[in-house]
Amino acid sequence: MTTSTTTLAQVPKPESTPSAGVVVGTVAMRSGRKLMRSMPILGISVIQSLVFLFMFRYVLGGAIGVGGFEYVDFLVPGYVVAGLLFTAGGGAVGTAEDAESGLFDRLRSLPISDSATLVGKIIADAVLIIFVALVTLAVGFLVGFRVSGTLAEFLFALVLIVPYALTVACLFTLLGMVAGSGQAAQGLSILAVPFSFISSAFVPISTMPQVLQWIADWQPLTFMVNSWRGLMLGDQMVATFDHSLGFYIVGSLLWCVFLAAVGMGLALRAYRKE
Q1: How is residue 1 annotated by DSSP?
Q2: Which residue from 65, 188, 197, 260 lies 20 to 30 Å from 59 (Cα-Cα)?
């Protein structure tokens, strides 16, 4: 009995596995520090967003009529939401580079949650996306944008940008996982450009051909844009919608849940196959 007891006592206890929350926070902080050490990435994201804002505001704005509204007021909410797609391209490139460098191989060898690892990366990318969106919105005010909705609606719009950014970051993480290289991920990110234009972001959907109208009406970006635009510009803008503001807000959140679930599931599958 003594021998048995001694033998059991000598067996080392297994090391505790970090919780999912710890893994998420650690990966997010690591990705954030990497970003802060690469300030040109952040600067390029902001400058790119502002350049396109100025082009739409001052080059194309005078030729686009939106009936009853200044184009700058119509543009800025749509551009901020559509701009999430442009900014997220950097996250896709970063994910592809992490996969190429062997970082994910090392992380998979550790006793940590695969899903928590990806969630940490997604949160870090979403923080960058939100930051660029808020900077763009601030510059939008400088170039003439004015809010017509209530303060509560404005604050709610700011809250909504969080699930929108997380969803976009999730989808672009998937893109980075399957791209194979940073260069390929950058090229695939360009696919966001036509997707953003076939929506209500930049021009009224009624000006599009009938087939494109149907696509634009029901694609997720239009729900997000109309939610933001309705909250920012109030009842006068909502009166021009085909559906109520609540329809677009709820619809945008349902799209977020669906797209995030699909994107996370496929990204996790790709991560485990790396």
Answers
A1: -
A2: 188
Single-letter amino acid code for the residue at 14: P
Rounded to the nearest 5°, which phi and psi values hold at 195?
Answer: -60, -40
Q: What DSSP line would sit under 34-66, residue for residue?
A: HHHT-HHHHHHHHHHHHHHHHIIIIIIGGG---
The C-alpha atoms of residue 232 and residue 170 are separated, in whole angstroms, by: 26
% of the chain beyond a pLDDT of 90: 45
Q: Are 73 and 145 in contact (CB under 8 A)?
A: yes
- pLDDT tens, 115-131? 888 889 999 899 989 99
Of 59, 61, 51, the residue nearest 87 (C-alpha):
51
Residue-wise DSSP of 124-179: HHHHHHHHHHHHHHHHHHHTT----S-HHHHHHHHHHHHHHHHHHHHHHHHHHHHH
Q: Which two tokens stand for residue 160?
A: 């909504």
Q: How confident is the model at residue 92 (pLDDT cuts 50, 70, 90)?
A: confident
Count of alpha carbons within 13 angstroms of residue 15, beta-carbon side:
5
